[in-house]
């Protein structure tokens, strides 16, 4: 039913849009999977985009034009992301695209995006090691999520022995590689770092959880860093709860578990485990209250939660609107330049700033799971600028990204050359 | 199956009159030629630009799917082996060419970048730079052993043929030797593609795990050629491959060889008693179709732009069987019709391009309901039209003698 | 922890004298004290909490302990305007009623945004609990005493020995006393002052495989690596390290160069960087730049620079070896007393065999649990595929249907136990009906075309999957086990098994027996076997094959539905869950041997143990285990095409 109303809304939006300029209505591409395994996370982001477009149209649109959302469904099929990106940019001729969730899908559409000089907003925390000319990364880079969470483990919880559990794909692999070298630099011995990868949707967790508990015999405080993605978390947390792993004994910090993922779980046995994000629904600010109210009204369900990637789209979309207004056009290159230095208030307080490396400055939040599936925010930093390239990996230690001054997303400061203008995908 | 048996008994066509005995081949070639010409005229790269580059790519990829579908038809419709693993060969072909595309493209970038330094790079530095570029994405910077010759196009082209061919040969030899047939063989081939997919999903395999190989649409050395032109090159190549594949298979299934494999399909034991080396025939068919599948994959993935292990998950091969069944088994053009119509319809309806149908009380949103209808469609076809859409031609031909 | 010592000592004194002390001078003594360490109270951190505790306890205002407890339970609020602290309770309109921490009187209301809730993290709470242990050990509430003991177990400390001894004497609950004695032993092993007591305590831990005992021993055995020209006097050496042998030469050299005892070894690109810095007129050391695209030319150029004295000589392997040879590298125990470390080492070694045995038991239990899930998922298929030779690709979707039935029942009946009791038979009925319907409408027409049932049922499978998506959405749905199934059965610290897995195992056994009974002991079973073996003959004997096929198919599907409920309890309920099990289920049936319930049992057991076994060798990569398992199955079928339990003669059916 909800979907039906949404599509009708989109359609009416299209009808109402009165062409004031030659390029009215302004087309906004929405490229989120509505079917397949990632629909679980991405459908919500499609909805939030439709809500933001509606809200902006109610405010009079952009440059006097109404906005029109062009929603396509890449169906969790990575090649389809590339195909539909080409379709959005060449057939629908959209001015901007908001979309993708997994890093794989982003890597799939990058070549098309760079070839056709599109503009893309990517709303999910990711592994870094990328800064495309055409992408604005509104999710967290590792230094805005993973590294602060590990610092919290080291300093506040006194963890000395780490279990890095992840789903087997690019984000956990790269993040864990960064974390391993970071932990080694912090004096954690290599034998105190246990790494395990499981496939997407893994359900058989008893042995792995048992192994983690077994680490406790080593005489050191054990902590788990989870980059487990999607559905598999349900089995993982169920097993944690069943084997009675309390947060006091073995704390677990997750980078891919938010309110949406916990809504499928009974969290009463998981109280005290942690997650690191840039946003939690429980943030007590007027802006957040307003956002949640608008979301509930739009979706017609008081029980729906909000999460970090939704805030990322909220910030990204509003920044894009402001950049278009500032540039006076939707031309990609003009908007890109207008994006640098854009500021917009976070839902958790403070102000997000878009840096010239196409990453945001955002605060880092660490939350403890509560019995009601929400998070207690126990730590909130000042805004941290996102780093495209990790200083903790040998290959990227000397790389920086600066599209304004250096006009390069992969600049080697050792050789003073731009390694390449396109991204590696 | 009774209909099929009657066909076996028809005497093989006399030598030299292959085309006369198979008028459908001429028809098919003609239509394929016309289609290619039409697309070329309408394309952005070489014609009036009426159809987008995007659509050209989709059509080109569809031609590759048609190619693997006729391979599937030969192995299933003619030889009776319901292989649920042919997409594994398709994927391997894609990986083989993808490695070269990725390596060579990255090498150009790295040479360019390092060459701008004061001191020219050593070969080792180039190789290290390439590895860091390709594998930095998966948290590693070493080039796995299987990439040793990735820089060589002839080597990787050979791999396109050899890897699927050898896998099919070894797997087929094992399976046919131990007389695994029917449903068991289907499940075994399914296990094969599952094992391969799981293997490729692992990072340790050295093919970037779940990430797969991407950016394959950029052809090394031709980076400055627009995609509208490159897409046409691949479209033509796919059309030529499909034509050649069709011709090859039509020839294979028309002679005495064709009669034998159809006989194997209908009663394997009897053919064996007649003194034929059944295993040899089956192995040949299995391997040749695997090789053609690999070639189809090698043409498909540069157009898709990315390949990852999910592409060869068991479901893909089941869909392949479904295309052939819907199109009509035991006739090559049936497979082409099935593959083209189902895959194009799928991408049209799930792409949000189709208008939703309002039935008053209920609204059919194609993105939600397409798969339900497709699924029920399979059931209907299997139950009511065992000969598939190709069967309609029989009807037409009989009407107009 | 050391910084806590004075305050803990003080707190012990405090318990003894607290009642006698006169109340402080000010009206708000506690608030006054808190304001002296305001920033530490307002933004707690594990690093600063000892300082705060020391300040509070030195000042010893009334209500300090209660405040600390409330503070660590996140019940304290800070008013940002003046930095004062309050307790609070919920008031009207989402407002908080502030309560004065000294008097307990109401001190006005505030919205939650006007005050900051102070949220000490788990690390801080652990420190506070450790500090409060002394009070809690004597608390009349046994639960509190046990909590205090847990706190000691988490952060053991030398000072706790005395408090624990006092508490042990006063303890009346024997269970708690046992626990206290055990913790005392562990503390003695680590912290006792004289060697004899420690060695005694450590010897008491011989053969103890519990995590906390091994943790204590491992903590005694912690080492630190060091180096020097000789091993210093009094060092309790754990082992000497030989560079190039059990320590990489480069690592050993790096230790020296880090300590400034040897010139740093240049990194990967050192030569290139040096050459780049020394380009003169397009040449380096007389070699033109464009020729420097290979290592030999670069080395020659570097040598030229070296001879000219422009750059420092390269560190060669020989140089490194020479430098390293002058030093001894070793690992030393942090514990200086060799008698203690030797005892600990012996105690730890004595557990090794037992640990291996228990780990093997643990793996076997995991394997059994996995096998029972595979069995449940496949048993329905064993009937439809194994007995009837119908390839039902929609089998996985029947599992999904069962799981969703469980979910729907749970949304209607909130009590998890009752809902589970209702869900199991209901899931059976729903999928039984679906199976019968499918058999009547589709499969019946395809008995002569087995490969085509595969296609038709695949069509049904994708239609059902999408339908589930349209109805329930793409979100994973919760299927929660009742509380009595939510815990785990703890054999010891090495082996524990989730109760739900035990229940699934029991259910698998139950189904096995039920099926065997139905197939071998009932009229229906007899007829099923008859129809399977020879439908024509069976029909002529008065059996209605149509009816039997329908019932058999319904039975197989119904079992899939029940399996779905149980799988949903351990894994996630999504529209795609069935697809995850279908291929594996087919392989289970084929490996086991088609047409036999025992075969499926054997197949599931083999696959379960195999997967866990491979995982055991390569624990970091679960995917590898699955890959090799499938490869094994492929090879297995080559050599035993009929599976483990091969039917012979006519029953084999071909």
UniProtKB/TrEMBL annotation, chain A:
CDD domains associated with the record: PBP1_FmdD-like
UniProt keyword terms in alphabetical order: Signal
UniProt KW Ion transport keyword: no
InterPro entries hit by this protein: ABC_urea-bd_UrtA (IPR017777), Peripla_BP_I (IPR028082)
Keyword Signal tagged: yes
Signal peptide: 1-22
NCBIfam families tied to this protein: urea_ABC_UrtA
PANTHER family in the record: ALIPHATIC AMIDASE EXPRESSION-REGULATING PROTEIN, PTHR47628
The protein, known as: Amino acid/amide ABC transporter substrate-binding protein (HAAT family)
Source organism (scientific name): Roseinatronobacter thiooxidans
UniProtKB/TrEMBL annotation, chain B:
A Pfam family annotated for this UniProt entry: BPD_transp_2
Protein's UniProt name: Amino acid/amide ABC transporter membrane protein 2 (HAAT family)
NCBIfam families xrefs: urea_trans_UrtC
Topological type in the membrane: Multi-pass membrane protein
UniProt main location, coarse: membrane
Domain of life, source organism: Bacteria
Signal peptide start-end: none
From TrEMBL, chain C:
Signal peptide positions on this chain: 1-24
Family: Belongs to the binding-protein-dependent transport system permease family. LivHM subfamily.
Primary localization: membrane
Compartment(s) where it occurs, according to its Swiss-Prot or TrEMBL record: Cell membrane
GO molecular function: transmembrane transporter activity
Transmembrane segments: 357-383, 416-438, 500-519, 550-574, 586-610, 622-639
UniProtKB keywords: Amino-acid transport, Cell membrane, Membrane, Signal, Transmembrane, Transmembrane helix, Transport
Name of the protein in its database record: Amino acid/amide ABC transporter membrane protein 1 (HAAT family)
Record's bilayer topology term: Multi-pass membrane protein
Alphabetical GO biological process terms: amino acid transport
Domain of life: Bacteria
Cross-referenced NCBIfam families: urea_trans_UrtB
Annotated GO CC locations: plasma membrane
InterPro entries xrefs: ABC_transp_permease, ABC_UrtB_bac, BCAA_transport_permease
Pfam families for this protein: BPD_transp_2
